[in-house]
Amino acid sequence: MFMNKMICKTGSARSACKRMFLASMVLLGGCASSAFQENDPTSTNTRFALEENRNKNAPDWVSKDYEDGVHYEGQFQNGKRHGRGIQTWPDGARYEGEFQNDKRYGHGIFTWPSKERYEGAFVDGKRQGRGVYVWPNGAKFEGNYLDGQRDGAGTFTYPTDREGKTVQERQVWNKDQLISKNLIDPPKQSIPPQQQPLSNTATSGSTAQPNVLRKEVKISHLSPVPPPPTPDKSSHVAPPGIGNPLLNQPDPTPGPTPPPALPAPPPQPTSPTTVAPSTVTQADISRTTLWTDPQTGIILASIPGGCFIMGNDKGEKNEKPAHEVCVDDFWMGIHEITQKQWRQVMGWLPEQSIAADNLPVGNISWQDVERFVNTINKRSAVQFRLPTEAQWEYACSGGGQSKPYCGDGRVEELGWVEENAKNQPHPPGERARNRFGLYDMTGNLWEWVADWYDREYYRDAPKQNPKGPSMGSSRTFRGGGWLSKGEFARATIRQDMDPSRSYPLLGFRLAAPRVMSMQ
Question: Is the pTM of this model over 0.90?
């Protein structure tokens, strides 16, 4: 976790810094929610309201009315709104915060006529950075925004029900499309502050552990949440509301709201397509050898090349059509990269679901992995890289065996999934290996691959050593995670995400075209 360094000298600045610090801690999952509620953005005691009278006495504080009915009181520079100010619209919308060159820029609070409210960062008039969006009925989304859209991790809090219970979801967004939502369990009874018992954590001053995520909703690109209206760039026009941020989310109208229903059960699993027998023989398997990187302990297995049927005609649309693919010999990591190996190479570790040297490293973006590969290759004679999507599926299927998962057996025998993982990741190598001696390609953590993502790529993919589309906006990942239902951790399932985004259940394993002993 990281924080911006701030110097707080005056009383009001210290209060502002404290408020921003507590809000950022909650958004990153490192602070109890009660601390944030002390400084809830629905309160009128914001740092702008506190400083409003002082600002009005500043020599550059000006009041101005515009022809369209917009009224502005605040600071100007070179004839433009610049600095702190308050702007109101004829329909009742209001913004108080920072301006730069006539645009909302910096920290601010926007209130819509419907009383929906956003407090957080703005860039060029749009929500960008950390922010909190609050509905009149108490629903709240806390998370990251990019170009006016939800983008990255955040927490959605449902309104408190009649029994005083609250339900929260940890969500991951990509350009206002919901990638995953996980219930934070268990829902807790709201207790008035005067009745809350003292806890050992509070008295000891230690940081409370975040709630464990209990349920993962299947990621789907077939039914994305409709995006909000495109924000108008004009500084005179109020930015549009984002509407209901989730499907099946309570309508943001005042009054009691019943507790939300649990996510609908996923559709029944599909069976993998019948494919041609593997071209890899048992004699090929018997010649498989291992190589260990002397610095990090990363172990690679030699994978004999061959041809197989890639995809699944009975799977999702992006798994079709099943088609023949041939790959050359290559080397593949038998385990997912661990937190210890990441730290050895990079010298730092991102926030983890559970921090432990022997657990696989997650919460890393594709771009993070690219930096890892570039760093390790500077000091290794082996040119590591991510496997292509074709190499990954070929290695997972043991050279093209017609199996639903990455190995021979039940899904619980091959990987850590929702049914057996006990809501946590596990050290690599504790489940059964597949035909090539690779572990955990089913479950535990999803795994990045090298390819750009294209849902229709299989329709025109080359047969020999396909490397994916030449360009795209998202990268592919495969295999399922420890919160995935086993039926969805199929060998052929494909997902994608912006390469700059990370996800706690998303890691990787390395591949290489050759190793030193084979050159």
Answer: no
